[in-house]
Fold these 3 entries.
Entry 1:
Amino acid sequence: MIIQLNQAISESNKATIVEAIGKLGYKSTEVKTQKGKYLVSIGKKEFDIRSIGHLPGIDDIHRVSDEYKLVSRKWKVNRSQLDLGDGVVIGGNNLSIMAGPCSIETEKQVEQTLTHLTQNDVRIMRGGVFKPRSSPYAFRGLGVSGMKMWYKQARAAGVKIISEVMQVSQIAEMYDYVDIFQVGARNTQNFNLLDELGKVDKPVMIKRGISGTIEELLSSAEYVFSGGNEKLILCERGIRTYEKASRNTMDINAIPILKEKSHLPVIADPSHGIGIREYVEPVALAAIMAGADGIIYETHQNPEEAFSDGQQTLDFQESETLIKKLRMTFDLRNSF
Amino acid sequence: MIIQLNQAISESNKATIVEAIGKLGYKSTEVKTQKGKYLVSIGKKEFDIRSIGHLPGIDDIHRVSDEYKLVSRKWKVNRSQLDLGDGVVIGGNNLSIMAGPCSIETEKQVEQTLTHLTQNDVRIMRGGVFKPRSSPYAFRGLGVSGMKMWYKQARAAGVKIISEVMQVSQIAEMYDYVDIFQVGARNTQNFNLLDELGKVDKPVMIKRGISGTIEELLSSAEYVFSGGNEKLILCERGIRTYEKASRNTMDINAIPILKEKSHLPVIADPSHGIGIREYVEPVALAAIMAGADGIIYETHQNPEEAFSDGQQTLDFQESETLIKKLRMTFDLRNSF
Amino acid sequence: MIIQLNQAISESNKATIVEAIGKLGYKSTEVKTQKGKYLVSIGKKEFDIRSIGHLPGIDDIHRVSDEYKLVSRKWKVNRSQLDLGDGVVIGGNNLSIMAGPCSIETEKQVEQTLTHLTQNDVRIMRGGVFKPRSSPYAFRGLGVSGMKMWYKQARAAGVKIISEVMQVSQIAEMYDYVDIFQVGARNTQNFNLLDELGKVDKPVMIKRGISGTIEELLSSAEYVFSGGNEKLILCERGIRTYEKASRNTMDINAIPILKEKSHLPVIADPSHGIGIREYVEPVALAAIMAGADGIIYETHQNPEEAFSDGQQTLDFQESETLIKKLRMTFDLRNSF
Amino acid sequence: MIIQLNQAISESNKATIVEAIGKLGYKSTEVKTQKGKYLVSIGKKEFDIRSIGHLPGIDDIHRVSDEYKLVSRKWKVNRSQLDLGDGVVIGGNNLSIMAGPCSIETEKQVEQTLTHLTQNDVRIMRGGVFKPRSSPYAFRGLGVSGMKMWYKQARAAGVKIISEVMQVSQIAEMYDYVDIFQVGARNTQNFNLLDELGKVDKPVMIKRGISGTIEELLSSAEYVFSGGNEKLILCERGIRTYEKASRNTMDINAIPILKEKSHLPVIADPSHGIGIREYVEPVALAAIMAGADGIIYETHQNPEEAFSDGQQTLDFQESETLIKKLRMTFDLRNSF
């Protein structure tokens, strides 16, 4: 059960509500975000919600039977949108394109990428400065210094930044330089990291776990929301299956399901979803047709020389073609 | 290695070729289909194919390193098309829509379905008369009598028929009444059935196994082709994964991969691919955008009363909407 | 619901029972096996089974809520045993060892294998004469002539035969020469084959499907039992997962679960379960400790020269060591 | 390539080696653990290792082609053992039993558990004070205060403690109170946590990821080892598959494979591996027979009242029976 509290509710009125709910056997968690105040109340007993609906300070009450509550669409019919400023909005009638290299490598690389993006009117650049790598001996990213170098150029170009945060201590280090924190597929259930991101007033995009269920992804988002941050984006990036003809199996089903179950925007990552450069385009277009609010993909001036993930990275010409087709596909879908 | 033989090759010239190849350590299988004569030669030694290319009766020679040979696109650059007659062609620039109930149930049901299809200019009707069921106590289909009843009406309406064949003895029983034999997901590796379908001059659509790999699907098609029947269609219908929010996981990646690896047309089955009625449309549209040559899906006058699979079956209004969107999506993709 | 009928029940008494059950909304399937007569009655309405229990001809009535009925342990507390004659019994307090090559190849190979088996007091030999192969160009087995050659030697040696049947027409061809029909992992849901095996009075061992669920395996066994043949064995042989360090993932969990859910004997196949020769022994011993009634594995005089599956085949010395350890492990388990 | 350095090597000799290796195109990482000094050198060029073997300060050089190096068995033939003091040794000829509740709950619960363990001569107690939970609203453990309460009693009883660490900041908080840090299945690829555990001089047990590969588990162990801590244990705890009859699929194959590929001890977790109380015993015994060095499982005075995981938790009587059978099974295996 989600109780939407009035922004101006007094402490005593709130206490009265918690007590009333408690008497019904419900345990309440208070949530305060950038946009609202909520009580998430969990219990088993059936009761008539009108019996508490009259209490002062309550704006609305909703039954939500899902395990996840605040990210469910059961209480919030209007889909959430995220306004990053400067006209960049995620969700609603906007197609979000996030493109860039797997790893931030050099000043020149960032410059070339930004030029490519601005020429194609792409407003969000992806890139990693902290890289999760299976092997401890692999390149692990440029770290904060890379972040600052990138930020300086991106701001000048009017381009927003999305980048992966791997641990709690990096949140503060990255805070001034990112527009969206990305939680990677290996950290989808790093609950401490999610807790801390709940305390931050910046958007967070959570990737589905390597073999995470749709429900687990939503529960991870619930961590951040219930921690106080409702600026959330979900990302489908392919799952691990027995099939080895592709790096992962893009779960196209997850897109309409997530859009139905949650009010949060959904982004698809075809680069990881299939992992093979020549097939990124059809999978990206399919994801839009299935209902995605946008695409995040890897592009590099010279994929063969990329520090990581070159085999799934588009060159700028392929990227430009993709962008055009994404927009036409999105327009068709919107016309339906 | 595939050696395309001249249609008019003499037996003695053929024997000379087989012998020459044999001396190089290659074992040859002779294949004669509706369209051509081939030698599929398998061996390990590298040699200059020009050294045998001059032998009389050889039209062309192709190296094919894949496990599957005849269905590979490595030797056949032009994609295969299937002409079912009466202007119904699968593959090429045609969008194939195959729709109908899970099970053929009654004369009236067939009549209603045909009316719905013809009103929407859909030329191929699906339906099962032999139903593979996990439980021996479940409805197993109307059998041959249902087939005949269906055939009579479909012919009158100018609509083609695709239906599942489950065992060798049914091939002859069904032969006069089907336009396309469908091999179901539980029979993808029923090699005896595939062998027998190789001897038949009717198109065969092979569904991917419940947890079959892309390579296994292509190898199953190779059985039919090498048996003498190159009228083949591949069908992606979702795979079994750990995710239980959908019945299967539609492997959208498989579509561009199959189109790249094979010259055969590829059909997608969103009904089984996701298994939930309300999400069939987005998955169907995504499959077209990913490159599918067509869609097979379940529709019924009254899904709630369907004998089987009602939860993933569209009603006729939903079906009509889907058909329109499929065509617009296909047109957009073709415009790229 | 399973109604055990008296062997001597009259037709009119049976009709009375079917009618009485029918009035309660239950649909009955009559099953007559080598051992008993049953009515499998399926319906939804709750009623007091004592209300029909008095009808003449009824020996016993059992509620069975599982999807599968006759193979469930809910109605048959005593586990089933299979007596193959000559002192060879599967199930109960017997450890069944079935060993032999993947494919029957030559007279000499059969002779060597039989010598190895009899020296180690192994009473059941495995071997394939019909081989399911992904590629149509691979060796497909010696067929019926191989079967006969094998049979002649095995009978002389007092060794029983288990061999895979791939299609309906092979049942009659093999009938005189096999002691156990094996249904392979690609045919677990070949329902027509299962139907026909239900009409046969020889034991049938059903392997779990390549990605079959435990419930599907039990439902496949239900096909054979309800067809009239209750001489059944279940076989766990590994499932398909994302892990590629082994050929399949031996589902050790399936062994105690199958033993709990069904009264049928359970055999484990470590050769396919892990697919790597050097690890067959630990997996085989683990399966016994988990509760298996026996093991089926591949052994060959010279695994490197085996026509198929050499990489997972033990040589005779390894096989002999394994047999000894299997017996000691089985004895320990029985002592608990 | 792993170069074992002499403990007393001078800085200048080390520099000489790094330079010599560098000239061959190899990049070296210096590793200093509790037990040794190593250079892990990665490069592609083949060369004769004897050409550098004579350099002063080198004890030994080993080629290791695996992605993981220091945890590989290719360079360390003798398996690693961990001595926890007071006669508690993991690995070698020792059977390690780690038992206790999912969550540490109350003083009384800890007391009862310790009594049960000491009566059965079990020397290591498991228990969670930081609990990873899918839902933010679930019980998350008693935290450090629970840890201290537990520690006090366990020390008095002479029992060692293993407990899960979820994030970097908890390492210091827990350090004085644990004997083994456990990395949970959701943190197997939390690389920052692994990095920090490399700096600690306490044993670390790493659980396989929820759908982690065997190779990923070994690479995660490599993080800790290369960070400076070679006191490592691997744990197989079941993987996520399509099969839903059990909570996870215990990958019994992983046990012999890990023992073959790595010199580290391997523990099996049957509680999570199957997730159903009544089947924990057969799976535990199977894991021992497959080669595990020990078992970690959940037991509770009253499983029905456990705060978490009650459905897979043994009561003390079941636990006692299991312990006895584990020891007899281990003895049999050791006798082979």
Entry 2:
Amino acid sequence: MEQLLAIMQLSEQQRTQVKALGINVVTPDDLARKQVNPADISIIYGWHPEVGPSVLNAPHSQLKWIQTFSAGVDYLPLAQIAKQQIVVTNASGIHGPAIAQSILGYIFHFTRGIWTAEQRRPQRFWEQSADDLLVADETSVIIFSTGHIATETARLLHTMNVHVAGVNRTGHPAANFDETYAIDNYQKGLAAADIIINVMPGTPATKGFFNKTFFDQLDHKLLFINVGRGNAVINDALINALDSDHLKYAALDVVDPEPLPETSPLWTNDHILLTQHVSGVVDHLDQRLFPILYDNLKTFVASGEVSRNQVNLSAGY
Amino acid sequence: MEQLLAIMQLSEQQRTQVKALGINVVTPDDLARKQVNPADISIIYGWHPEVGPSVLNAPHSQLKWIQTFSAGVDYLPLAQIAKQQIVVTNASGIHGPAIAQSILGYIFHFTRGIWTAEQRRPQRFWEQSADDLLVADETSVIIFSTGHIATETARLLHTMNVHVAGVNRTGHPAANFDETYAIDNYQKGLAAADIIINVMPGTPATKGFFNKTFFDQLDHKLLFINVGRGNAVINDALINALDSDHLKYAALDVVDPEPLPETSPLWTNDHILLTQHVSGVVDHLDQRLFPILYDNLKTFVASGEVSRNQVNLSAGY
């Protein structure tokens, strides 16, 4: 009988549905109390930085598949997983609405007078005015990525008549984008944008992508948003761009490193909005994620294959 | 020849278009230099607290029509205007997208972790968490008003699968609203909502509408937003609601009085987001407003009637 390790908690009803497929459900507690042999686990639902490797590294491990609770999977030991020929499926699609809505929150923070009002509040200075008041239909956005999250963001921006460009590997067209550019030739799209959004997953190719060379290209841009990975941005290069005429504001939901040390200069720059890696957090994640696990379990039981959200382990997403 | 007083500036091209209709354009400067008799002005485009009344009060005034630059017209001397049988047209429709986008900014400030992050920032405390993280599809909104601004707000919320109720005079159905209630019987709609938004124009009926009796009805509501008029809210009643279990957060773009005095307790309540009557500010107002003036001028010249955005002077909107 296949054993599924539920690091991500299953409700009673979900557990019953899984068992009905002929799959046994065990928990990290069962492992800790040595009631289960880690080598016997074939499926992991969720991940944990200690429990996960204890299964992966068990001699003669039977592990075949990991269903994660996140869209990005860069925190997994992907090289080892690939070597052991383990399948990874992610939570792509779950976090799109939350992140897209967070992005709207960051944009309107700077374009609808919230930033100005908060700057003035300590002085209790009230005057009917604000910096950079813009209606969305007069802004233009470029999103690095045309994946699920980027697509949902573009969809929402389109409902407000924003022009949206996207960047992907080859520049192939993508739903909800007015135009798309290849990652090695995005400059024309960037030149026309006021707002730049990074949604790219964390891979070796995206590490340090937003560096001095990138920011030096910018000419009076309004806003840079990072909801991808913190290490995509070189902090000093971003701060220099804000201190010069390259860029006016930044909103960073992810930073490098996390947690952000007290000594980081990101804290003290009042042109940076900092949130705390929560843009993708959804309530009732368990209910939103289970359908992906369950669809995959059904085909896994029947054929040993998964049907949804399989990660390309060499690309990393 | 009809004389139009352009308090709101006309571009050269707009001025040419107006003159081509056989209308003479004069400016407040012309009035100040006594090159024009205020009694000869028949149309005012825009408004100014001194220039406007100088025309309205001129003996034997020929004033027939005022085209304002705002949706609300409560700053005009409406009783006198009605008595002199002057037509008022407003800028309804112009500010809808800006205000709807501002409202999204206020909602996501509290539901996507921005508020929490800003509370923690002075302590440089970074932890991957935030209060009240919600995805829009799990919130329910009630909007007091089903006019242009409310309709655009409901449209945007619908694109994120928010359930939206509206309140109007009779409870008649309105585009983009899932359900509507009459202003004297809205309690069922209110009970189901997490977020309450006031978009009502300033009239004698809305003054003090959000008072102790109103807030006492609320049971753990998430957010109250006011983009209508400041005097619709009794400040002490709102603060009491926030200090008890009735309401968690408020976002106020309009306050009573404006400018908000330094001594107001609204400044010191950190559960209140304050912006400065900028939710409806649009860039290039002159370009967005002129089509309304121009459409009205064409029918005014032909028949003495306006065709768009006439205000009901007894209702006040």
Entry 3:
Amino acid sequence: MAGTQYREAVVDLLGALAYGELTAFERLADDAAFAPTIADKAALAAMAVSEYQHFARLRDRLVELGASPEVAMEPFVQALEAFHERTAPADWLEGLVKAYVGDGIAEDFYREVSAYLDDSTRELVLAVLEDTGHSAFAVERVRAAIEEDPRLAGRLALWGRRLVGEALSQAQRVAAERDALSSLLVGGTERPGADLAEVGRMFARLTDNHILRMAVMGLSA
Amino acid sequence: MAGTQYREAVVDLLGALAYGELTAFERLADDAAFAPTIADKAALAAMAVSEYQHFARLRDRLVELGASPEVAMEPFVQALEAFHERTAPADWLEGLVKAYVGDGIAEDFYREVSAYLDDSTRELVLAVLEDTGHSAFAVERVRAAIEEDPRLAGRLALWGRRLVGEALSQAQRVAAERDALSSLLVGGTERPGADLAEVGRMFARLTDNHILRMAVMGLSA
């Protein structure tokens, strides 16, 4: 892996992703407490376990790279905790929408970034982004709930908008603070990245996909 | 596996154990939120994952036995949820003491009961009772905290007593309601169990082990 700045950027990226998986584990396990049935509780727990296994792979890779996983994750703790604090779901359905919308945006973002990575890092990132089956589960449950009580759609659509707003605001904070990480995307002194037009198109794709996901759940974005 | 009552008792036992593991998963994942460092958070998450894997093995066995895991777990939901509600830890150390003391008593109890099981069920029960490394972790952290601030010992000792009291009260409730399960221990119409003196000795062993565990953490029972 060439270049100090590139290595630093990869450690940042894997650290952010690792802490993201660890908080996803916690969030899903928390949501399990809201589950209306034991089977739903077990399904959420299984998804939480998958997130943990993703976390463990990222942590192992950080160790392979000679980085301390804790040090690598540390810069992203505040932003991720702030996001989760500001978007604590009030019930089972809000938790499902959050997991689906939040994971979706994070997945799209990391998939876009993976284009600028070396093969071995890209492979790992794509592997840990693999859907744990949560999406289908969340979509199915949210759609069924809205069919049963259409008034839910308004509240959940608002909730979706709030989630995206908070996610973008925390992401901007991280981008402003972590130069190495941002340079992965927009290029740095050592290597070219996407030009500004490409970054713009990337955000358009992220937004389009978000609107699509909301529609799949039966919600307006 | 001979006898309807025995099969019913085994399904009860595996159901109780399975829901116990599922709530242990949730409890450890919740405790991870209190963790003072990212490494501690990851360690708790790993233990939660082990509990989930135990749960999954028990659920699979229930399916093999032709039982619905959800139906088998249902009778124990209320008692286990009531126990956890009444003993929600206020901080990281209370969570560690609860996990160590609670898992210890549960483990001792199921180990005693396993003497009255057929080989294949006993093997499974002993396998899922295997320590997930949580004990050493909890003991080390609690001892270190008390060494640093000896005043903690009084509060945590009281907390240990409350945990045992609540655990016994919920266990009695379950025993009173689930005849098949109780008959495993004390015998039923189809097969002999322990006599009353043996049940008394079993409770003495459970109590002795609890006192020992408290002492290991540096707490009086």
